[in-house]
Amino acid sequence: MISVIIPALNEQKYLGRCLSSLIRQTVKRNRYEIIVVDGGSLDRTDEVAGEFADVIVPQKRSGIGGARADGAEAAQGDLLVFTDADTLFRKDWLEVIQENLVDKRYDVSFGPVLFYDRTPQSDLVQLWRAQYKFFHIFRFYRLIGSNIALKRDTYDRIGGHQDISILEDYDLSVRLFKEGTISFRYDPRQTVFTSSRRFNSLSSYLKIYLYGYYHYSVTKDREKLLQYPPPVSVERMLGKIRG
Question: Taking a C-beta distance cutoff of 8 angstroms, is the pair 3, 80 a contact?
């Protein structure tokens, strides 16, 4: 059984397309479940989810990472797949994941995250993310939250997602790397297509990234990773990190 876990907060605009894409997989529908974790939506997110999802879970833990962990706790599957509510999928997406985790026996499987509504800003983000492959030389694999699949026992072994929002996927990547014995498969066939809406302002994106890195690596204040940064210039943020 494959469990696909999708956190959602006021996602009625995007969630229907996401789930419509997900139910058209080449894997038989009775071989995977769809779990939507609702973070307290005030729109029709639950109603949209109810048309397609097998389980709707009210979020209990904090942050995006906490929502993913809530979904994993409710999941029945041996394979856990994490994605986002504004993401679309190739028809063989789950088939490729199943091949990598079951037939080829990798512990973690991931692939490209592309944008279906490309902008100059998202093209720059895509170029930046392409550099992540360099770290594969050192056996560090930078996972992106909308396209992660792993065996449940692997997920449980590292303690799952932490209750944070910023860098929740980076944190998972780091802890998988530190475990030392986990096998990874980067598969270009495991492609998803997601919205570029988060990158309309590159300065805001950079600010969040620097803020997250600073508190993740320097202050180690996990509470700060639950909230997005207050208004502050990128130059000031860089100064804090250098200091």
Answer: yes
Q: Are residues 149 and 217 in the same domain?
A: no
The domain in which residue 98 lies consists of 2-198
Count structural domains, the chain.
Answer: 2
Element (H, E) at 149: strand 148-151
Same domain flag for 187 and 219: no
Q: Collect all residues with Cβ–Cβ distance below 8 Å to 94 and sequence separation of at least 6.
A: 2, 4, 25, 26, 27, 32, 81
The closest of 2, 22, 20, 15 to 75, measured between CA atoms, is 2
pLDDT averaged over 10-residue windows placed end to end, the chain, 243 residues? 97 97 96 97 96 97 97 98 98 98 98 95 92 94 97 98 96 96 97 93 85 92 86 46 47
Separation between Cα atoms, residue 109 and residue 99, nearest integer Å = 10
Domain identity same for 111 and 146: yes
Q: Which residues are CB-neighbours of 237 under 8 A, at least 6 positions away?
A: 207, 210, 211, 214, 229
CA distance 32 to 29: 6
